Structures are given as structure tokens and as C-alpha cells.
Amino acid sequence: MIPLFVDCSGRRIVIFGGGMVASRKAVYFSGEADVLVVSRSFLPTITALPVKRRVLDVSTVSDDLIGGIIDGSFLVIGTFPVPSLNNRIGKLCRARGILFNNADGEAGDVIIPSVTGGKNYTLAISTKGSSPAVSRFLREHLEKRFPALDEMVALQHELREQLKHDVPSRSRRTAILWEVLSDRELWESLKKDPARAREQVKKRYLHE
């Protein structure tokens, strides 16, 4: 498997299950895709989301009915606590060439990573399904270790554009960007006062 960022706008995603795992998946995709959640019942978290819902006991219906639900989907997710039920859905997806993520059972085609980010960046972390706890641990560590990361990405973008005009040497531009990234005092300033941090950059690295 290789990591990819995919635009899910307008794509149909079907989530089977109405519990905690289904709720997390629905939160993850809601607002970014056309989401349908299929289950006998739903947690309040799901009912509060801008997603479609279909009440159905999947264990009692035919493959044809399930197939009709998933036809045309970009991604299907199985979150039932019964692996055999998820595996059944996964088999139907494979027969139709539909991507499948399995929360419990035989591995599907897609792993949904632990994600953190801001306005200017997104980080996705995965242990390939081996340890979701480690993925969460790394995500939380990064969030605590770099609380000003979003501001740093924005600053780097602004600085990079300015250096293209002011510094002819590409190697020197790269060196300045790395020096800024390594400036611990600047990281602290970005966390407390981004405007002040930008003034520091001008004085220290642009000599303005």
C-alpha cells in the first residue's frame, strides 16, 4: 500500500454499522463526501451529522440487496463487530471493483489513517492496521510538540515566495528556510505572537 490524498468531493461513501467506529468514520468523511450510513440503529453522534442514514439489519438481507446499496460507491467501510459480516461486504465490493476498508476482519484495499492538521497542512499517520494506538500516540505527540506548526507552514510559504525575488542563490534560499525551521525562539514566538515572529524573521534572516 502507498499513501495518497484523495479528493472525495461528491463521491459516494457507504459506512456499514452505527456504533463508535462507524461514528468516527462518518465524522471523518462528513462534509467531504456523499455519505450513507447503514445499520439497525445509530449513535446520536451519527444522527447529528450531515449524512444519509438507512435503517437495515444487514445480517438478514441478501447479497443482491447489499450490492444494490454499494453499487456506484467510491469507498465502502465495514465497521460491524462481527468480522464475518464485514468480510461478506468486502467480498461484494471486490467483485464490483469498489474500494473497501475493513475495521474488523480481512484486510481491505484502504487503510484510513490517524489524521491531524490545520489550515495549512495535513498529516496522516498509519501503522498499516497493526496498532491504531501507536498512530494516535504519534498524532497527539506531534500536536503537543508543535502547537505552532500551522503558523510555521504559513510563514515558510510567505518566506519562500519572498526569497525567490530577493535571493538569487537557490542553495542560500534553502539554507535560510532551514535556519528558520531550526530557530527555537521563533517557534515560541509563532505560538504566542505570529506578527512578532514575522518581524524577527525580517531582522534575522532578511536583514530588513
Structural descriptors:
208 residues, Rossmann fold, 7 strands, 5-stranded parallel sheet, alpha/beta
Commentary on this structure:
The structure is a single chain. The protein is of the alpha/beta class and 208 residues long. The protein folds into 3 domains: 12-112, 3-Layer(aba) Sandwich (Rossmann fold); 114-145; 149-205, no CATH class. It is 49% helix and 15% strand. It has 9 helices and 7 strands, in the order βαβαβαβαβββααααα. The protein has helices spanning 20-29, 44-47, 63-70, 83-96, 132-145, 149-166, 170-181, 184-192, 194-205; strands at 12-16, 34-39, 52-55, 75-78, 99-102, 114-117, 122-125. The strands form 2 sheets. A 5-stranded parallel β-sheet has the order 3-2-1-4-5, sandwiched between helices. Strands 6-7 form a two-stranded antiparallel ribbon. Helix 6 (149-166) runs antiparallel to helix 7 and helix 8 (184-192) runs antiparallel to helix 9 (194-205). It is elongated.
Coarse shape: elongated
In CATH, the homologous superfamily of the largest domain goes by the name: NAD(P)-binding Rossmann-like Domain
The CATH topology name of the largest domain reads Rossmann fold
Largest beta-sheet details = 5 strands, parallel
β-strand percent reads 5-15%
Query: Which CATH architecture of the largest domain?
Result: 3-Layer(aba) Sandwich
Total of domains: 3
Task: Please give the count of helices.
Answer: 9
Widest beta sheet: strand line-up: 3-2-1-4-5
Q: How confident overall, as mean pLDDT? A: 94
